[in-house]
Design brief:
With 284 residues, the protein is α+β, with helices and mostly antiparallel strands. It has a domain of 140 residues: Rossmann fold. It contains eleven helices and twelve strands. A four-stranded mixed β-sheet has the order 1-2-4-3, with helices on both faces. Strand 5 and strand 6 form a beta hairpin. It is globular. Its EC number is 2.1.1.216. It catalyses: guanosine(26) in tRNA + 2 S-adenosyl-L-methionine = N(2)-dimethylguanosine(26) in tRNA + 2 S-adenosyl-L-homocysteine + 2 H(+).
């Protein structure tokens, strides 16, 4: 039986209890199952979603991405993180229709797929607030400089105002390359630090015999240190290739950022990449 049919018919059965956990792990996109899963799962339940259609989510087929996720991706050095944020945006958008919203617990990009773990909760007030957690993204086609433009800004609890559009962003003010508009995407945290700590604790207690223990442990530790409030990242190799300069040791770059008062962290999305709250011009 088709999963969507099952999730539609089961609530009509006697003695039905909404499931606390649903795992969507199809071949390709999970988009066609998202709406049913959001409606089917219990309040506070854990929804796990895997997508392997990375060609769509990484900007190769914008029209297909929009048809499935109601968002547009563009090719960039951080396309895998954008893929995760597009999926989270789509999950939250579907949830909002039913006065529900999502709270990401863990979001990862591994090999050829992305996987997210979110809680699905019900709250009309939080649904209203979710508009501030969605943004459009302007991306430079040459240097990958990015700017986020929230769909709306929160003025006070329950009151939001449409944000100013990306006027004057047709060209990058760093390299003068043309910019492209992507999104909307999820602009908030990709994980819950307490949940990641719990995963690490359980991994050490019960996962010592796993063949992939070292890889999972390493990835979770990197995710634990990632800046939660800094969407997207910069890639060191590409930055210094752009300015035709040898790449210094990353420690020197991070020390300079620290002395200037900025935060930074590595990211699991790409090797030799880092997140920071420094302005783009300070990075380049």
């Amino acid at each position: 039986m088709d999963a969507n049919v099952l999730m539609t018919l089961l609530p009509q059965a006697p003695l039905f209890f909404a499931p606390d956990v649903i795992d969507l792990d199809p071949y390709g996109s999970a988009a066609v199952f998202i709406d049913s899963a959001i409606r089917f799962i219990a309040n506070g339940g854990l929804l796990c979603v895997t997508c392997t259609d990375m060609a769509n989510l990484c900007g190769n087929h914008p029209a297909s991405t929009f048809a499935k996720y109601f968002s547009v991706s563009v090719k960039s050095t951080f396309c895998h993180e954008m893929a995760v944020r597009i999926l989270l945006y789509s999950l939250d958008l579907n949830a909002n229709r039913y006065k529900r919203y999502i709270v990401p617990l863990l979001s990862i990009s591994v090999d050829f797929y992305i996987r997210v773990f979110v809680r699905v909760l019900t709250s009309a007030e939080e649904v209203k607030a979710s508009i501030s957690r969605k943004s459009y993204v302007s991306v430079c086609s040459i240097c990958n400089r990015f700017d986020l433009f929230p769909i709306a800004n929160r003025l006070r609890p329950g009151v939001h105002h449409a944000t100013q559009g990306p006027v004057g962003h047709s060209y990058c003010d760093i390299c003068r390359g043309t910019t492209k508009l992507a999104g909307p995407v999820w602009n908030a945290s990709l994980y819950d630090p307490e949940f990641v700590d719990l995963c690490l604790e359980q991994l050490k207690e019960r996962g010592q015999n796993l063949a992939t223990y070292d890889r999972v442990n390493g990835m979770l530790n990197v995710i634990k240190e990632e800046l939660v409030d800094c969407p997207f990242f910069y890639h060191l190799d590409e930055m210094f290739s752009l300015v035709k300069s040898p790449m210094p040791k990353s420690l020197l770059i991070f020390s300079a950022l620290s002395r200037l008062g900025y935060r930074f962290s590595y990211t699991h999305f790409k090797k030799n990449a880092f997140k920071t709250d420094a302005p783009a011009k300070s990075d380049v």
